[in-house]
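Throughout this chapter, every protein is written as a compact record of paired, labelled lines. The reader may check this reading against the record printed directly beneath this paragraph:
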Amino acid sequence: MSRDETSLAKNVLGVPGIVFLVLAAVAPLTGMVVIAAIGIAVGNGGGMVAAFLLATVVLLLFAVGYAQMSKVLTSAGGFYAFVVKGLGRTPGLVAGFVAMLGYNCFVAGAIGTSGFFTSTAIDDVFGLKLDWIFWSALSVVLVLLLSRRGIAVSAKVLGVSLILEVSILLIMDFSVLFRHGFSFAAFSPSVMFQGASGLALLFAANAFIGFEATALFGEEAKEPKRTIPRATYIAIGFIGVFAAFTTWAVVSAIGAEQAQDVAAAHLSSGDLVLSVAQEYLGGPLTKVMLLLLVVSLFAALLALHNSATRYLYALGRVGVLPRLLGKTNPRNGAPRYASIVQLVFGSVVAVAFRLAGLDPVADLTASMTGFGTLGILTLQLFAAVAILVHFRRTRDRRIVKTLVAPGLGAVGLGLIVTLAILNFPTLAGSSNGVVPHLPWLLLIVALAGLALAVWLRRFRPSVYAALESDLEREPSDVVGQ
């Protein structure tokens, strides 16, 4: 293959572009309507505000070491590459498999979520009834068309959608603030430590899923050793502050002390935030919010697809997966075949659930997005440990930046992953069928990665060696538009 066929675009993403890509994957509006509402109901009620702030602290501590590692390593392999650098090729391949399956399952779930909520919103606003699989298929086609235009185009589209969904939530937030005021009871110990504080922290961390994608775009970034750390800090800080502020508005509107009971009453309908919007924004703007929820879900699907594609591309480039997946479009650097394969996988899963007559939310979203979330959280923990090991191995003297802060972040992530495994049905939002047993799939995937690493080391040593040599690729090696 020529270099033009295996290289991503150069110097197309600045800090704003990467932040848009990451925040769109996080989907702030979806996070508030779905994740924050569930966290209030099954976690610690009004204390969910503090849970978001605690999750922000944990991830910012992790980001300190992450930022230092980003200055050492620039790779489209993201956290998989971090693990190779810190722990070696075999653990790195295990992390690569976890990342690949986690992100691809997450996208499969997002296809179902997008289709279901689009169907619901279009029916509610326009009275047009169409099966959710139609809207899922339309979303997939649009994602494919946009992703093939290159990452810069995706960043612009996601930037617009992000501004719209954040704006409608801020209008609601300030309407609550000016008409009702914010309740400081949300920060009283009796509220913060009521209910299941551990579950609250788990759901708060879930709202950050997607921030780790900053590393995936290093080869496409301008001055990646400065851009990636800045984008990471901005993304984590924005998600945490915005989520806490909006949750505080919702909790204040319904009452901090009774927030958990009120949220639990809305749990089956999933309309807690929309009910607050109805009261403080009125009917027309609430319908706008419902339509923007559709935009938010599509934006998340597009952003997550770009992330999943880059893991397939990175593993194809080194020969672990078919090298065809490592080919890109010479004109704009977009992964050519990895994008198609990724969407085909997600679409086949969605269609299989539809043909089986299973529910797009209770079954498809719960199983695929639930496992995807667990996989990505585990990947974050792998990366945290790898960062610590790498800087201890190199005897880095910046103790606070490379040991204390990332070490505390790793402990926090370890707690979150443990909570995710122990409370997986609650995290996934379903106990149907095989859903409670899906965490075992994580062990199977890890063993598969381990077995492949052993096989490659014995029978395809050049590919095994390439896992590490590929990390030496500098940003200057990346072909521009």
Q: What stands out?
A: The CA atoms of residues 457 and 465 lie 8 Å apart.
